[in-house]
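Example for tutorial group B:
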C-alpha cells in the first residue's frame, strides 16, 4: 500500500494551524509556547514543512480550539487529496494472496527481485 502524501498533509495541517492562530489573534510564539514547541519548529509546521507528533497535534488542537479532523482534512465529507492518492487499488485490496506476496517482496534485495521477475515472466508464458 502506498504511503500518504505527507507533503500535502503537512501543507494542510500548516494552513489550518495558521488560519486558526490568526482567527484567535495569537502569534506563532504564543501557540508554540502553548503546544510546547520551539517557535522555529512551530513556524516550520505552519509552512507545511513538517508534521506534528500525535501528542503535539493533540496539544495544537487544544491550543487552537480546533478538532483534529479539521487538521487532517477529514471534515469536508470528501476524501482528502492526501488520502485519495495513497488509497490502494481495489484489486490489491481484495486479494489477500497479493498483499502477502507484496509484504514478502518488500524484504528482498534487487537481485532477488530480478529473479522473481524472471520467474513471474516465465509463468505468464505458460
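The residue assignment follows.
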Amino acid at each position: 500500500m502506498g504511503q500518504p502524501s505527507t507533503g500535502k498533509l503537512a501543507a494542510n495541517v500548516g494552513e489550518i494551524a495558521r488560519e486558526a492562530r490568526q482567527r484567535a489573534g495569537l502569534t506563532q510564539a504564543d501557540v508554540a509556547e502553548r503546544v510546547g514547541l520551539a517557535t522555529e519548529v512551530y513556524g516550520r509546521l505552519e509552512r507545511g514543512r513538517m508534521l506534528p507528533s500525535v501528542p503535539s497535534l493533540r496539544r495544537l488542537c487544544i491550543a487552537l480550539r480546533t478538532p483534529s479532523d479539521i487538521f487532517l482534512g477529514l471534515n469536508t465529507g470528501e476524501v482528502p487529496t492526501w488520502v485519495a492518492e495513497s488509497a490502494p487499488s481495489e484489486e490489491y485490496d481484495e486479494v489477500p494472496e497479493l498483499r502477502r506476496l507484496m509484504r514478502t517482496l518488500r524484504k528482498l534485495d534487487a537481485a532477488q527481485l530480478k529473479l522473481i521477475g524472471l520467474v513471474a515472466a516465465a509463468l505468464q508464458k505458460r
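The mean pLDDT is 83. Compare this with the pattern of hydrophobic and polar residues in the output above.
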